[in-house]
Design goal:
Helix content is 47%, strand content 15%. The longest helix has 20 residues, at 36-55. It has two domains: 5-183, Rossmann fold; 191-280, N-(1-d-carboxylethyl)-l-norvaline Dehydrogenase, domain 2, CATH 1.10.1040.10. The chain has 294 residues and is α/β, with parallel strands linked by helices. The strands form two sheets. Strands 3-2-1-4-5-6-7-8 form an eight-stranded mixed sheet, sandwiched between helices. It is globular, with a radius of gyration of 19 Å.
């Protein structure tokens, strides 16, 4: 399948990163968000990423100009999706919201378009059930930061067609990603393991086993993880991590997946991680630091 136009629904951290990669791949990329301020914030983060690359000598001004020409911002979802070959939804992890969007995408997008969801844990089949074309719906789970992470987890539900899977694999390859294909089970292959590790690290922190930085250092140096589970939780977003854990607990009817009370407290206090300057760590300066008020 030849891709020329992509629509990304949602301009948050993940949506902006996905749109950036699509623009860099050479596709005409339309970034949509229901909130103008969110749309501008997403564009600002993309531009800042490119500027940082220029400052480090990894990106040229010409590249930024070419990539920027591939990217347009839209406040009307119908206009963003019209004529798109691929639509990637990247809105918050709320099933009802995603189902509502997919029921609209079916009407707005061309009949040949691949309809992908970037959910990190919700059942793809349940999202696809909101449409009359479930064979075109697939999970495309990207990782943060999208421009730097090499993995793309493709999630196939029971009604997903072979053609859709093959197209998604080709799309991932064009983006420079290595794809894995997993069944549509709660948490897939990555989120299920990742959030459990992060939740246990939070439990250890709450129990006073060690500081956050020492727990992360243990996993980085002892197990060769590129980033410790607590730092990663802050990067992904503590609200996102909590949502995935709650979804897993409900899906498996297993209380062991429930988020630790410390995670609940942090989210309720608005300490969502790096994106707001404070989470498990204090990110208010250029260098993260342990908090003494947890």
């Amino acid at each position: 399948m030849r891709i020329s136009t992509v629509a990304v629904i949602g301009a948050g951290t993940m949506g902006a990163g996905i749109a950036q990669v699509c623009a860099q791949t050479g596709w005409q990329t339309r970034l949509y968000d229901a909130f103008p301020e969110g749309l501008q914030k997403g564009m600002d983060s993309i531009s800042a990423f490119w500027e940082k690359g220029i400052a480090r000598g990894k990106t040229t001004e010409q590249q930024k100009s070419e990539w920027s020409a591939n990217l347009s911002l839209h406040e009307d979802m119908s206009a963003a999706v019209s004529g798109a070959d691929l639509v990637i939804e990247a809105v918050p992890e709320v099933m009802e919201l995603k189902q509502s969007i997919f029921s609209q995408l079916e009407e707005m997008a061309p009949p040949h378009a691949i309809l992908a969801t970037n959910t990190s844990g919700l059942q793809i089949g349940d999202i696809a059930s909101a449409t009359e074309c479930p064979e075109r719906v697939i999970g495309m789970h990207f990782f943060n930061p999208v421009p730097l992470m090499a993995l793309l987890e493709l999630v196939r539900h029971e009604s997903c067609s072979d053609d859709t899977v093959e197209a998604a694999q080709s799309i991932g390859s064009a983006m420079g990603k290595e794809t894995i294909l997993v069944r549509d089970v709660p948490g897939f292959a990555t989120s299920r393991l990742g959030v459990v590790l992060g939740n246990e690290a939070i439990r250890m922190l709450a129990d006073g086993v060690a500081s956050a930085s020492d727990i992360d250092t243990a996993m980085r140096l002892g197990y060769k993880h590129p980033m410790g589970p607590l730092e990663l939780s802050d990067l992904v977003g503590l609200d996102v991590r909590r949502d995935i854990l709650n979804n897993l607990a409900e899906a498996f009817d297993d209380e062991r997946y429930l988020p630790h009370p410390m995670l609940d407290r942090l989210v309720e206090a608005g300490n969502l991680g790096r994106k707001v300057g404070k989470g498990i760590y204090d990110w208010s300066s250029d260098v993260k630091s342990d908090r003494d008020d947890l």
